[in-house]
């Protein structure tokens, strides 16, 4: 940031213009729900406005509280802030950077977590974000400034980290490879942050990891500057807009065109900060009252898999806190042939398998994620049929229903 740009950002903050631009961005973004028309019912709209407040909280936590250039932190993602089908069995630790000009050391203890992966990413982020107005540009401004379209530039799996007998470890985060035999997470000059994904097989029986990040140059913390606050407001507001547009475009321009399907696309997954240690398929589901959706697949050998039912904003359903809305490898009931049977219905038809309660929703998104997989993701067979037929005839009802083969790999 040049001195002139910094001074402009400073004056925008002190005059209140940066705040006004943030508020206008939020106001305009909230009304994007109207673009869904009748596709969004009353429950969808209630969850949309809650989604907006969660995104605001996400932006505040990340860019106000956790983006001090001289005091880096690895902090949990905000509670109940699930973006893009976030797994209930996966926690996120985030560190936000202004740029990639500093080097860091991460130290910690893995606890008993079976697996974690660290990633560094870039985003479209001009140097003068706090010196400009963004609200008037609305979605068009995302072509230049988009905190949601994240590109992973480096990643490090826990398998490649050396742990001592107590589970302690050290990782260097830098642009240049460090000397010696130390784990290294490479970053670029344009790095805007790190994300650590911790994957739980059995959360209740697992000791969570502890991690700390610090700058290698020992820079002392200092008070916040007005220009930095202006930048933070711009990023927080644009994050809300960017994720709102992301879920809109995924639903209206992509997934909703193929209801009751799952498609695996590496390009789609990696476009949002994904890491190449997994296959992640996405799709949408819809059913009428009194209907059921039955899915059957045989998981490819992998370290972990999870199927999630979500709302149209790509959030877990509220019943996930009760252990509902998803099925994963270590809690699933398997058929005798090793396949998994999932039943999405408003009540349990009592046919075995794994019942998933849509919790009052008529439609939404869903995903199938497989981590550290030996081969391609599995095909999925899907049936949509009357719930009464399942309750009456059991699995024999599937013989009279149309079988749809999905789970295709597009790239």
Sequence of strands across the biggest β-sheet = 14-13-17-11-10-20
Unreliable runs: none
Order of helices and strands: HHHEEEEEEEEEHEHEEEEEEEEHEE
Mean pLDDT across the residues is: 95
Tally the beta strands.
Answer: 20
In whole angstroms, the N-to-C terminal distance is 39 Å
Shape, please? globular
Residue share in helix: 10-25%
Beta fraction: 25-35%
Distinct helical segment count: 6
For the largest beta-sheet, the strand count, sense and barrel status come to: 6 strands, mixed
Sheet/helix structural class: alpha+beta
Radius of gyration: 23 Å
Could you say how many structural domains there are in total?
2
Key traits:
411 residues, alpha+beta, Immunoglobulin-like, 2 domains, six-stranded mixed beta sheet, five-stranded antiparallel beta sheet, 6 helices, 29% strand, DUF1214 domain-containing protein
Structure description:
The chain has 411 residues and is of the alpha+beta class. A six-stranded mixed β-sheet has the order 14-13-17-11-10-20. It has a five-stranded antiparallel β-sheet with strand order 1-2-8-4-5. It is globular. It starts with a helix and ends with a strand.
């Amino acid at each position: 940031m040049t001195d002139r740009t910094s001074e402009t950002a400073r004056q925008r903050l002190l005059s209140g213009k940066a705040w006004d631009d943030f508020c206008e961005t939020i106001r305009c973004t909230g009304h994007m729900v109207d673009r869904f028309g009748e596709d969004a019912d009353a429950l969808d709209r209630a969850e949309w406005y809650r989604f907006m407040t969660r995104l605001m909280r996400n932006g505040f936590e990340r860019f106000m509280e956790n983006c001090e250039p001289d005091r880096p932190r690895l902090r949990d993602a905000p509670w109940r802030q699930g973006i893009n089908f976030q797994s209930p069995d996966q926690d996120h630790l985030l560190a936000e950077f202004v740029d990639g000009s500093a080097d860091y050391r991460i130290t910690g203890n893995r606890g008993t977590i079976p697996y974690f992966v660290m990633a560094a990413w870039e985003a479209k982020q001009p140097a003068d974000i706090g010196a400009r107005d963004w609200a008037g540009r609305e979605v068009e401004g995302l072509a230049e400034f988009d905190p949601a379209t994240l590109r992973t530039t480096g990643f490090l799996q826990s398998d490649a980290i050396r742990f001592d007998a107590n589970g302690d470890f050290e990782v260097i985060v830098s642009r240049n490879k460090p000397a010696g035999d130390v784990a290294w997470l490479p970053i670029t000059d344009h790095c805007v942050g790190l994300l650590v994904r911790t994957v739980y097989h059995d959360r209740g029986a697992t000791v969570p990891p502890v991690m700390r990040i610090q700058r290698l140059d020992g820079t002392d913390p200092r008070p916040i500057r007005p220009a930095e606050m202006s930048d933070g407001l711009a990023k927080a507001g644009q994050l809300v807009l960017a994720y709102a547009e992301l879920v809109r475009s995924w639903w209206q321009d992509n997934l909703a065109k193929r209801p009751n399907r799952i498609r695996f696309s590496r390009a789609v997954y990696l476009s949002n900060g994904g890491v190449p240690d997994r296959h992640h398929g996405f799709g949408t589901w819809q059913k009428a009252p009194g209907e059921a959706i039955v899915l059957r697949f045989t998981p490819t050998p992998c370290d972990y898999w999870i199927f999630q039912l979500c709302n149209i904003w790509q959030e877990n359903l509220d019943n996930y806190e009760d252990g509902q809305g998803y099925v994963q490898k270590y809690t699933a009931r398997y058929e005798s042939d090793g396949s998994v049977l999932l039943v999405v219905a408003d009540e349990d038809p009592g046919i075995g398998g794994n019942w998933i309660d849509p919790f009052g929703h008529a439609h939404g998104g869903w995903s199938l994620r497989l981590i550290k997989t030996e081969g391609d993701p599995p095909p999925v067979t899907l049936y949509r049929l009357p719930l009464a037929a399942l309750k009456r005839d059991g699995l024999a009802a599937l013989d009279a229903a149309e079988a749809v083969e999905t789970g295709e790999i597009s790239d």
